[in-house]
Sequence to fold (260 residues):
Amino acid sequence: MAYRGKNAVVTGGAGGIGLQVARQLLSNGAAKVAIIDLQDNLEEFVKLRAAHPTQSVMIIKMDVANRKGIEATYEEIVKTFGSIDIVVNVAGIFNDKDVQRTLLVNLGGIMNSTLSALQYMNKENGGNGGLIVNMSSVVGLDPMFIIPVYGATKAGIINFTRCLGNDQFYQRSGIKFVTVCPGATMTDMFTNFTEKIIFPETSDETYKILDRLNKQSATDVARCILSVLDKEKNGAVYVIEGKRVFPLELKQQWTGKEHA
Ligand code: NAD
Ligand code: MG
Fold:
């Protein structure tokens, strides 16, 4: 999908990977970009607008865990933009000590934003169709014992997005769904990490594990996400690691046939 002239929504766009995605969408010619985030980042938003004076940048302060709030947010975006072509759901947190909040933000937030957006994007409702990209993680694929709660929400995102990335649904809706799974990335996400893990006794070991990991930049991850938008492969799951992006080979496990 070319981004030129398209209208996009980015959740979690006030910082980290999301901000880089919003920035790159604008520099690649997106017409209008809406950023949904709990937090402000006035300095960066002023810069974004100054760098793209002929494009629209809409900032909405909203919690993705708030279903009614997110529904109202999409209504507002569509009223202002006219339509939505691209959604990149990036908002997420790490805090395994707060199970409820992690579920509501990481998994609930992706569901709230995706399900609200698709109503407006759906061709059956007069939308343009388009592409929704959901942010998982490599730890949603490969279990990492120190972060089971976060990992489970990221695994859930993959299944949710693959369910929707179904060609029969695409024929009706015109919407494609893709999951991205970056490896460790340099952002604020893991600040005070050892205070947010559920087994503090493993924190020495955790430090060692984290230290060994190669960490990529948010800019590189965003570049890979834009290349995934270009590929438009419905239902695909991509790993993003060190400037590289590659699709997973996923085969069906269940046949539904009787065994001999
Ligand atoms: P970050 O903390 O820099 O950015 C997350 C953004 O989401 C922030 O701007 C934050 O304010 C926003 N946000 C958090 N909760 C929100 C809510 N309830 N409603 C709206 N906005 C909310 O972290 P990041 O590393 O850029 O993370 C972005 C996404 O990438 C997350 O989903 C994360 O799980 C995922 N991810 C991160 C890494 C990594 O190593 N950093 C690796 C793989 C996947
Ligand atoms: Mg971010």
Q: What stands out?
A: The longest strand covers residues 175-182.
